[in-house]
Write a structure and sequence with these properties.
single chain; alpha+beta; Arc Repressor Mutant, subunit A; SH3 type barrels; 3 domains; five-stranded antiparallel sheet; three-stranded antiparallel sheet; 10 helices; about 20% strand
Length: about 325
């Protein structure tokens, strides 16, 4: 298996628009190796895609036609090497693609042979061990979302009731604070909630749900979070943070479903940007330098959360009233 990247082709390139998918992926591979490793050889292309020597030569030639300034053959290295005027035409210049793949391999999520790396740089990932979610549970959740069916799950909750069995109607997936969640209506609470995929121990699909996901106003309503450098930090720190986050006028605007804003809030401790007092009665405080970011429009966010809850409640009640009338 090969991890492919979404192509970011040059709009001016006529060749890319006529390429078949397989051809385009091989050109992306050539460019990936050039961009990040400085060289590419035919054998690497052959082995990655299980193609003939002749096909690899054709692909090399096609890449040279599309980007003649990007590489040249070096008879000493016996490889095509990156040139000074190199500019990405097929994979884009997004460094996150390289770093995410590197993270996946170093974390054990992906095997090296499934990547496009020939040689990997020295790199380590500092992270806690994570138990993969069994494929059966994810499959069950996806089947429920796709078919609009309810499901009974065995769930290990760290909050709320101690009951392990939950009756839910999943309608979406969300990722935040390092975890995947399923967004679902809860029969127990008669409200929409998030369930950590890693805490689902079993799933059994039931009949089609009578609760429409459109009632979940916290999911379908977006809120624009305005995030700024922590005002308690020195000016120099704030400038660095603004540049690091790509802020415009010292603001980073991020639109998310109201229900998803919570995860940014807790992951980046946006509500703790000024001064934090531990809840254990010790009176200790945490220095402001620990908190780089702050949510500028917190009052508006809290109002949006309250409004979404009220609208969801009203939508659920209205749907039941209409069902009773019909």
């Amino acid at each position: 298996m090969v991890l492919f990247f979404m192509s970011v082709t040059d709009p001016a390139s006529q060749a890319s628009s006529t390429l078949k998918w397989g051809q385009l992926k091989r050109l992306e591979f050539i460019e990936f190796r050039l961009l990040w490793e400085g060289r590419v050889i035919r054998r690497g292309l052959r082995e990655a895609f299980q193609i003939s020597e002749q096909q690899a030569s054709l692909d090399i030639g096609r890449y040279l036609d599309a980007a003649p300034d990007n590489m040249a053959y070096d008879p000493i290295e016996k490889a095509y090497v990156r040139q000074p005027k190199f500019a990405p035409k097929f994979v884009g210049d997004f460094t996150d693609r390289y770093l995410l793949q590197l993270h996946a391999v170093r974390s054990g999520i992906m095997a090296k042979e499934d990547s496009w790396f020939k040689k990997m740089p020295a790199a380590k990932v500092a992270a806690l061990a994570h138990k993969p979610t069994p494929w059966r549970f994810i499959m069950g959740v996806l089947d429920a979302i796709r078919s609009g069916r309810e499901a009974v799950i065995e769930y290990r909750s760290l909050t709320g009731t101690t009951e392990t069995q939950k009756h839910i109607a999943p309608h979406a997936l969300g990722h935040g604070a390092g975890r995947w969640h399923v967004r679902a209506w809860s029969r127990e609470h008669d409200s929409f909630r998030d369930y950590n995929l890693d805490r689902i121990a079993s799933i059994k699909l039931l009949d089609r749900s009578t609760v429409s996901s459109e009632c979940d106003r916290a999911w379908h309503t977006e809120f624009e979070m305005i995030i700024i450098p922590n005002p308690a930090l020195p000016q120099g720190y704030r400038v660095t943070i603004a540049e690091e986050r790509g802020m415009v006028n010292n603001e980073l605007r991020c639109s998310l479903p109201v229900s998803m804003c919570f995860y940014l809030d807790i992951e980046y401790l946006l509500d703790l940007a000024e001064k934090v007092e531990f809840g254990d009665g010790t009176g200790q405080t945490v220095r402001a330098e620990r908190f780089h970011l702050k949510l500028k429009n917190r009052k508006a966010y809290e109002m949006a959360v309250s409004a979404a809850k009220a609208e969801t409640r009203a939508a659920l009640d209205a749907a039941r009233t209409n069902a009773d009338i019909s």
